[in-house]
Amino acid sequence: MEQERAAVSERRNAAASVEQKELALFDYIDEAFLIFDRAGYLMYFNQAAAEAYRNKLGYMDSIEGMHYSNLVLDSLPFEEIWQKGGEAPKENPHQVEVHYGAYCFSVKRYLLPENGNLVMICKDITDVKEKEAQLLSHTATIREMNHRVKNNLQTVVSLLRLQAQQSPGAATKKALSDSMNRVLSIAATHELLSSQQDDSIQIEQLLEKVIENVQRCFSGHLDSALTYSLEPDICLDSSRATSLALIVNELLQNSYEHAFKDKMAVKKPQIHLQVGLKNDIINLKVSDNGSGYKADQSFDDHLGLLLVDRFVQSKLLGRLSIQSDDTGTVTTIRFKQ
Q1: Same structural domain for residues 140 and 101?
Q2: I need a labelling partner for 86 at 20 to 30 A (CA). Which of 42, 149, 157, 307 fits?
Q3: Is 242 among the domain residues?
Q4: Residues 99 and 166 in one domain
Q5: How many domains does the chain have?
Q6: Residue after which a domain boundary falls, among 100, 124, 148
């Protein structure tokens, strides 16, 4: 009998020794780790907990043996944790964020079903919250800047429109009108940036605004039908999105202005814009059924196509292909998303 008692006692002492060694491991983590018994009294706390309650929470005395109600950072009663015990498994603990003075803590509570003990883990997330606040402030500032840039660009457009109205020459009026559309294409990007959180632009929304501007500019060409097919969920950073908007603006303007000069040759003028994505490659195609032109000629005497060529190479790092004959023109641009 004495041997059995000694064996039981030895096993208990060994288990207690193992438990103490396991608990000692919590001194190496940064979070405050506390264990309360079924009555709510503190059984164990690690070094991080002692430092947090002393240095950050202002506890002058040792927290050893204190009741849960004297140590909890929010207003959740100990009895309520027991009531919610079955609803808060380890995979989904009761978790809250608590502001305590100048600090912010993430508090997790686990009720251990095997012995009824309560584990409370407190993590200081003050630095994280401050950085989040700084990021939100920075984001709001950038959005406000984009909103002001958009407004300033629209003012520039108004000035160009006024200048065009007072200009006697047709060539000058056209040059100013082309410039207005280019500025509006840039403004469309800033308009989208002013209403979102990041720098990513959804191409479908952007190009719809470009199309709307071009159609408004060429509202007198009622016989020319402009259709489009834009794959949703294609996004680009603001720099490349702006370049793409300018490119599409130039190509659509080019079709409106030059493709259908011989109105007798084309009964139903058609312009179509298509944008798709396959294997991380964006394919953009602008086609029309106009009279065509010599695609192998230099762009030096055509500012619009010169801009398209330069922007495709330098901004999009893509390839420009033009096929044109007396049945129409197809301009294709391929670049990596």
Answers
A1: no
A2: 42
A3: yes
A4: no
A5: 2
A6: 124
The answer to whether residue 10 is domain-embedded is no
- Please give the Cα distance from 56 to 75 (Å, whole number): 19
Three-class SS state of 49: helix
Q: How far apart are CA 262 and CA 290, in angstroms?
A: 8
Residue 120, beta-bridge partner list: 34, 109
Q: What is the pLDDT of residues 10-57, one digit of tens each?
A: 444 444 443 555 677 777 888 999 999 888 899 899 999 999 999 998
Which value, to the nearest 10 degrees, does the dihedral of the CA atoms of residues 172, 176, 177, 181 take? 150
For residue 200, list its beta bridge partners. Answer: 237
- Residue 247: what pLDDT? 92
Same-domain status, 138 and 39: no
Q: Are 245 and 189 in contact (CB under 8 A)?
A: yes
Please report the DSSP string for 231-244 in residue order.
-TT-EEEHHHHHHH
pLDDT tens-digit readout, 208-236: 999 988 888 887 665 778 899 999 889 99
Query: Pairing between strand 225-230 and 270-278?
Result: parallel
pLDDT band at 1 (very low <50, low <70, confident <90, very high): low
Q: Cα torsion for 162, 166, 171, 174, to the nearest 10°? A: 20
**Nearest alpha-carbon partner for 178 in 214, 224, 209, 208:** 214
Contact of 239 with 186, CB cutoff 8 Å: no
Cα radius of gyration rounded to whole Å, the chain: 35
Spatial strand order of the sheet with 32-36 comes to: 42-45, 32-36, 118-124, 103-111, 94-100
233 within domain boundaries: yes
Q: Which domain holds residue 90?
A: 15-124
Q: What is the largest CA-CA distance in the chain?
A: 119
291 — pLDDT class (breaks 50, 70, 90): confident
| Single pTM value for the model | 0.62
- On whether the CB atoms of residues 243 and 316 are closer than 8 A, the answer is yes
Note whether residue 170 is domain-resident.
yes
- Does residue 190 register a pLDDT over 80? yes
40 and 82 in a single domain? The answer is yes
What's the token pair of residue 314? Answer: 């330098």
